[in-house]
Amino acid sequence: MIPPTKDESILIIGAGCFGVSTAYHLLRRGYTGVTVIDRAASVPAPDAASNDINRIVRTSYADKFYSELARAAIASWKDEKWGDTYHESGVLVLGASAAGGASSYADEAYENDRALGASVQEFADGAALRAAFPAQVHTAQFEECAGYLNRDGGWANAGQGLALLIDEVQTLGGTIIPGKNVSKIIRAPASGRSIGVQCDDGTVFNASLIVLATGSWTPYAFREQLDLGRMCLATGQCIATIQLSAEEGDIYRACPVVLDFKSGFYVFPPNKDNILKLAIHAAGYTYFGEGNSTISTPRTITTDPSRGLHIPKAALQELRANLKNVYPDLAEKTFLGTRLCWYNDSPDSDWVISRYPKDDSLILATAGSGHAYKFLPVIGGLIADLVEDKLSAQLTAKFSIERKITQVDTSRSGEVQALDLTELNTPEDLQFRPIS
């Protein structure tokens, strides 16, 4: 593949984490014909996975590649251009195995963090874990728990970070056009190479190179032209929020992010608006619509304004039960709201950063698998490397759409379930109901 020249047109479809970061890195390398289009009427898209009040920024991975890349991302997050987007609260990693037991994901993450020089403190039991929290915070006893605090991490205001990078892309001369939903990839009849796209409104964008970065919408939106079923699956992940008082916010704000790799549960410190978010890093839910589709597709506030944010009642109960195992007092509060956050998952949770087979002019940049946002400052560099044919052979194989799946992601809990619309939460379910 001959890389595009610096003045050739590059079209990026999707203004989320992958797409905007790619545009930024290409512009920084001197490319002048970079255009980003997005289906949403405004960007960041209100239902994009990368647009939220917070995302975990952790180096704690069982795969050393991601640990190293996360350290590079954190170094960038500390640059003044990000303002107060990044908060280094520390990340308390739970799920370490008992002494003499089989190595767990948390154990492997600890070894990688320690080997890379992270500031970590190990806790052998629940009593020791209390030291990770301020003295005034009432926590559970953490029975049969072990883990470690990684001080070199925390959380980022996801929507703010994405908005800042969108502004930076435009400042560097990139073009961002919202409200353009792609309906078809245009291919040259003779070669079969992608040469542009057509949108629902009839607009055509021609390009020498297309980067497809449409997140969880990818499998369904391009089902007729691309074979992605083996590698891409849209799943909904369950999130809830709690509104704290100003006094409560001041008490809990100094806490670390808590991430339990055994249950998948995680909870953030409250943000500046005293909103505390909790979620489960799990296999998630699929949704196949009301028809006969065999491809899972996101169900969001955009597709269903009345109930698009609701989650299964069982998941709501699971969130409350897990919160009780960390902050018992908060588990008795009313939930402010819920959200199904949609990921594009690969079977092994490695990303797809790959040229599409037999079409060198189409690059896939997707399958974030619920752990891409923390890399917003740097992930576009990998895609820019692929554009320029500079991505290492090892990473080209790791992120290939045609790779063989040899392992599963052990950082996520449970099995994928089909979303049952009759079991979604109601406003009444957000209330705390003590067991009589």
Chart the SSEs and their pairings.
Blueprint: E1 9-13, H1 17-28, E2 33-37, E3 55-57, H2 64-77, E4 86-87, E5 91-94, H3 105-115, E6 120-123, H4 126-129, E7 147-150, E8 154-156, H5 158-171, E9 175-177, E10 182-187, E11 194-199, E12 204-206, E13 209-212, H6 218-221, E14 233-243, H7 246-252, E15 257-260, E16 265-267, E17 275-280, E18 285-286, H8 313-324, E19 337-345, E20 352-356, E21 359-366, H9 379-387, H10 393-398, E22 417-418
Parallel strand pairs: 1-2, 1-13, 2-9, 5-15, 13-21, 18-22
Antiparallel strand pairs: 3-8, 4-8, 5-7, 6-7, 10-11, 11-12, 14-17, 14-19, 15-16, 16-17, 20-21
Word description of this protein:
Residues 10-386 form the FAD dependent oxidoreductase domain. It comes from Hypholoma sublateritium (strain FD-334 SS-4). The protein is of the alpha/beta class and 436 residues long. It has 2 domains: 9-50 and 159-232 and 348-398, FAD/NAD(P)-binding domain (3-Layer(bba) Sandwich), CATH 3.50.50; 90-154 and 233-346 and 414-430, D-Amino Acid Oxidase, Chain A, domain 2 (2-Layer Sandwich), CATH 3.30.9.10. The chain has 10 helices and 22 strands. The strands form 5 sheets. Strands 6-7-5-15-16-17-14-19 form an 8-stranded mixed β-sheet, with helices on both faces. A hairpin with a 4-residue loop joins strand 15 (257-260) and strand 16. Helix 1 (17-28) runs parallel beside helix 5.
